[in-house]
Amino acid sequence: MKVLLNGEWIQLPEHIINVSDVLKHYDIHQRHVVVEINGEILTKLEHQNTRLADKDRIEIVHFVGGG
Amino acid sequence: MNNRYSRQELFLPIGKDGQERISNKHVLIIGAGALGSGCAEALVRAGIGQLTIVDRDYVEWSNLQRQQLYSEDDAKNRIPKAIAAKNRLLAINSSVVIEAIIADASVVELEDWVKKVDLIIDATDNFETRMILNDVSQKYSVPWIYGACVGSYGISYTIIPEKTPCLSCLVETVPLGGLTCDTAGIISPAVNMVVSYQISEALKILVGDLDSLRNKLVSFDLWKNQYSAIQVDKLKKEDCPSCGNERTYPYLSFENQTKTVVLCGRDSVQIRPSLPTIRDLEALEKVFAKQEGTVLRNPFLISYNVEPHRLVVFKDGRVLVHGTKDISEAKALYHRYLG
């Protein structure tokens, strides 16, 4: 499926079904992230069972420490 | 009177009234690295009344690429960042009252400093300090502005007690690992962008225009050309131990404090004595002089170079062990040279 990820259209591989798959795909599943799908923010528990659909708008913000 | 603030007063949301308010405010900046330098300069130029800037480190050559307040002389002489920052800031605006503190921002210190200020700006390089800062902000109801950057990426969020989620709501536990300045480096535009986000929000708070606050978690990547701003109100937790209904302020308790930290991007470990200490630097210089290696002392610290390590001892008892990221190795060196 094709999704708008942080403002860019991306073609996701077929095996990606839900939000946690995307986080694994980008190797950020172990980081602290905030995810928003189509304007709706998800709690961490919802990452596992929120399925993605074609043309979803996904925003992923990860926390960093440097300064 | 000169007209140094005229352009800022012409900006309608600030105006003469806003300028007057800014000039009566006191801001605390934790950290005088890249973000701290940028934020401090912006606030001082904007005519803040009083600024307290805290840093535990001193200037090194690798700082000069992005830490805008510092010069080659500061790096050559290993001037503590708080002092070098104050000197430069006073040259920029002599009417601002600037307090420079060379110290580690931990619980006792933060609880003391926060009582005097209207706003805290986060310019730290680690989550350990931020979680303490977050608890202190909630306990004393002082807003703070989170900012961080690594590589070409940056992030910021404004935390208003009783209103927005706090950092604990957003991250739940102290984030460990992940990218640091060690692994990913940092470019100055990322720093400046975060500084711009932090200072825009700071000015809104200082003039009292809270309705104009961004109210979103913002992040960007200047190299990948990405930008995102997320409304995170839904993540505010009623049972948050830092800002919820039954607060325990977990990060203010002694057990949650570490006494050693690996410094971001520095190949260094800081060791902090569990009880407050004052080091006699002059006496220490004599001790080091008898050993192999080279010693350099200035009024604030003593630097002892013994290849491949370097130990820097501050007056308040803290020691930076350079040349290692290994805490136990650092502790070993600490005990070897300082008893």
Q: What's the gyration radius of chain A in Å?
A: 11 Å
The helix/strand series of chain B, from N terminus to C terminus, equals HHEHEHHEHEHEEHHHEEEEHEEEEH
Could you tell me how far the N terminus lies from the C terminus of chain A, measured between alpha carbons in angstroms? 36 Å
Structural class of chain B: alpha/beta
Which consecutive residue ranges of chain B, at least 5 long each, have pLDDT under 50?
none
Helix fraction of chain B?
25-40%
CATH architecture of the largest domain in chain B: 3-Layer(aba) Sandwich
Q: How many angstroms does the end-to-end distance of chain B come to?
A: 56 Å
Please identify the structural class of chain A as seen in this structure. alpha+beta
Tell me the β content of chain A. Answer: 25-35%
CATH architecture of chain A: Roll
* Largest sheet data of chain B: 8 strands, mixed
Strand content of chain B: 15-25%
Secondary structure topology:
The complex is a heterodimer of chains A (67) and B (339).
Chain A: E1 2-5, E2 8-11, H1 19-25, E3 33-37, E4 40-41, H2 44-49, E5 57-62
Parallel strand pairs in A: 1-5
Antiparallel strand pairs in A: 1-2, 3-4, 3-5
Chain B: H1 6-10, H2 15-22, E1 26-30, H3 34-45, E2 50-55, H4 72-76, H5 81-92, E3 97-102, H6 107-114, E4 119-122, H7 127-140, E5 144-150, E6 153-159, H8 167-171, H9 181-184, H10 188-207, E7 217-221, E8 226-230, E9 260-263, E10 268-271, H11 281-289, E11 294-297, E12 301-306, E13 309-314, E14 319-322, H12 327-338
Parallel strand pairs in B: 1-2, 1-4, 2-3, 4-5
Antiparallel strand pairs in B: 5-6, 6-7, 7-8, 9-10, 10-14, 11-12, 12-13, 13-14
How does this structure look, described?
With 67 residues, chain A is an alpha+beta fold. Chain A has a single domain, classed as Beta-grasp domain (Ubiquitin-like (UB roll), Roll). Chain A contains two helices and five strands. In chain A, strands 2-1-5-3-4 form a five-stranded mixed beta sheet, with no helix packed on it. The model of chain A has no long low-confidence stretch (mean pLDDT 91). Chain B is of the alpha/beta class and 339 residues long. Chain B has two domains: 6-255, Rossmann fold (3-Layer(aba) Sandwich); 258-338, TATA-Binding Protein (2-Layer Sandwich), CATH 3.30.310.10. An eight-stranded mixed beta sheet of chain B has the order 3-2-1-4-5-6-7-8, sandwiched between helices. In chain B, helix 3 (34-45) packs parallel to helix 5, helix 3 crosses helix 10 (188-207) and helix 6 (107-114) packs across helix 7. The interface between A and B is medium-sized, with 20 and 44 residues.
